[in-house]
Amino acid sequence: MSITVNLRYKGIDGAAKKFTEEMVSSGTVEKIRNEAGNLRYEYYQALDDPETILLIDSWKDQKSIDAHHASPMMETIMELREKYDLHMTVERYVSDDSMPEKDAAFIRK
């Protein structure tokens, strides 16, 4: 079982995209991806709303998330969110890790 958090960052005048670019260029994204328990850390830009960036952030378990939240990277992230005046919505999901046969039939590999 893993935990996935979808964070939507919203700003104005390209602020969310600038935030993600700085997260990458500063090496913060790479550090997060290398943290124990991180399974996925990826940004996506909404096709219908260029002012919104989606972060898909997956972790092995709550203990891994707690360690991440206690890491120095969180201070960097919070400073950058403030710098770019970003607002967020958050959705949290716990994985099922199963795929019923009737659903698997619709997946093209």
List key phrases describing it:
109 residues, alpha+beta, Alpha-Beta Plaits, 5 helices, 38% helix
Written overview of the protein:
- The protein is an alpha+beta fold.
- The protein has a single domain, classed as Alpha-Beta Plaits.
- It has 5 helices and 4 strands, in the order βααββααβα.
- It has a 4-stranded antiparallel sheet.
- A hairpin with a 6-residue loop joins strand 2 and strand 3.
- The longest helix has 12 residues.
- 9% of the residues are buried.
- The model has no long low-confidence stretch (mean pLDDT 95).
CATH class assignment: Alpha Beta
Number of beta strands: 4
Overall helicity: 25-40%
Q: Overall 3D geometry? A: globular
Number of domains: 1
| N- to C-terminal distance | 23 Å
Instruction: Give the class from helix and strand content and strand pairing.
Output: alpha+beta
CATH fold title: Alpha-Beta Plaits
Cα-based radius of gyration, to the nearest Å: 15 Å
Question: pLDDT below 50 for ≥5 consecutive residues: which ranges?
Answer: none
How much β-strand is present in the residues?
A: 25-35%
Strand order of the largest sheet: 2-3-1-4
